[in-house]
Design a protein that fits this description.
Number of domains: 3
Structural class: alpha+beta
Distance between the termini: 43 Å
Number of helices: 10
CATH superfamily of the largest domain: Histidine kinase-like ATPase, C-terminal domain
Strand order of the largest sheet: 6-8-9-11-10
Helix content: 55-70%
Order of helices and strands: HHEEEEHHHHEHEEHEEHHEE
Shape: rod-shaped
Oligomer: single chain
CATH architecture of the largest domain: 2-Layer Sandwich
Length: about 425
């Protein structure tokens, strides 16, 4: 798309330059030619007005007087022919001076008032005449070239300005499709694209909330089912052990097997719900690439906000987590620091006893004591947010077998603890 936009803009500018530049060039050529002809006519008139007084007083006129006369020399080298008609027209004197007569001559004549007077003829080369238009035509050509270059530059800039937000939108849609529901594409400044971006972000938030709610419901339902199933299993085991009737013991054994299968089915459904909510199948994730990718994604946003974002990676362990969930959790913490924190934000990955800790901290005022106890509750926010981000992040971390804590209030430091694979 970027290439097509640039080509379209360049073609439009080139067409405009041709449509305007060619008529302008013809106009400039005609004007300069008219000016050159007027200059030649003025030279001929000046020569005639200089020689006529000499003729009226019967003073001799020769080639030396002609070459010394004003108007003899001009911008264009010319062949000068002067015809002198004295009293009664019975004596005509012709004087030739200047350059040799050109083969393709352009001629101007001044004065033909026979039988007495001065006639001046100037003949110049047509190529010299046309050469008078060359500087002006060259200026038009340079201006046209500059317009095309400027059009290409503007076209490239505009194409980049339009295509980059669309590329980010495509990447955002791909993230949503892969389950990374915490997306934050940059603002492009183009109203229509920004509207789509905002709607995608809102849709991602709604999807994350729904998935977290479904995961929570599945966990609650599983817990509620496991309790009576455990009690029933214990009762059947007691019946199997204490009954003296083989038929009863066999039925108890069969019932216990059915309860075990039901428990396994519930656990399987719970696992599927948990990791669908996280956006991918749980597995092992190298910590380093995830944190580096998040730094690269959020660095421009922090730079635009005149904030610094640094990474301190002290371990590159492989952790037990799903890629989509871990990415979303780190993105949520970085976004929270950008929105509510101040100064430099540090993303640190370090080894701890039995696992890995991922810390996100900044140099802001932190979280008040009143808010710290309920910062992970739904619909609780310090201002400017929805109150869902940290709650959803905590649910995702828990689903991967870890925990998310506010390890320091002032300044705020959020820590994600995960198990090492």
């Amino acid at each position: 798309m970027h290439h097509r936009l640039r080509l379209a803009t360049t073609a439009a500018v080139a067409a405009a330059v041709l449509l305007l530049g060619i008529p302008l060039g013809l106009f400039v050529y005609q004007v300069t030619q008219n000016q050159a002809v007027a200059a030649l006519e003025a030279r001929a008139d000046l020569l005639r007005s200089t020689i006529e007084p000499l003729l009226s007083t019967d003073q001799p006129v020769g080639q030396s007087q002609l070459e010394a006369a004003p108007g003899f020399n001009g911008q264009i080298p010319a062949h000068v022919r002067v015809s002198l008609v004295r009293t009664g027209g019975d004596h005509v004197q012709v004087i030739n001076a200047g350059v040799d007569r050109p083969a393709n001559a352009f001629q101007v004549v001044s004065g033909e008032d026979y039988p007495r007077g001065v006639k001046v003829e100037l003949e110049v080369s047509m190529w010299d005449m046309r050469g008078q238009s060359l500087p002006a035509l060259l200026l038009v050509a340079l201006a046209s070239l500059a317009a095309i270059v400027a059009g290409v530059a503007v076209g490239s800039w505009q194409a980049k300005r339009l295509s980059e937000p669309l590329v980010f939108l495509a990447a955002t849609a791909e993230q949503l499709g892969s389950g990374q529901l915490r997306v934050s594409p940059p603002v492009s400044g183009i109203e229509e694209i920004d509207l789509v971006t905002e709607e995608l972000a809102r849709s991602a938030g709604r999807m994350a909330t729904r998935l977290a709610a479904e995961s929570q419901f599945a966990a609650d339902a599983s817990h509620q089912l496991r309790t009576p199933l455990t009690a029933l299993s214990m009762r059947l085991e007691e019946i199997e052990l204490t009954s003296n009737q083989p038929e009863v013991r066999e039925e108890a054994r069969i019932s216990l097997e059915q309860i075990d299968r039901l428990g396994a089915t519930i656990a399987h459904l719970l696992e599927r719900t948990r990791y669908q909510g996280a956006g991918t199948d749980q597995g092992t994730v190298p910590l380093g690439p995830v944190l580096v990718q998040q730094i690269e994604e959020w660095q421009p946003v922090y730079h635009k906000a005149a904030r610094s974002l640094v990474l301190e990676l002290e371990t590159d362990a492989v952790v037990k987590a799903s890629t989509g969930a871990l990415t979303q959790v780190v993105a949520t913490l970085l976004e929270n620091s950008l929105q509510h924190g101040a100064g430099t934000t540090t993303l640190r990955g370090r080894a701890v006893a039995g696992g890995v800790a991922i810390e996100v901290g900044d140099q802001g005022e932190g979280v008040s004591d009143e808010l710290a106890s309920k910062v992970f509750d739904r619909n609780v926010t310090g201002g400017g947010g929805t109150g869902l981000g940290l709650a959803v992040a905590r649910d995702l971390v828990v689903a991967d077998g870890g925990r998310l804590e506010l390890s320091n209030h002032q300044p705020a430091v959020f820590t994600v603890f995960l198990q090492v694979a």
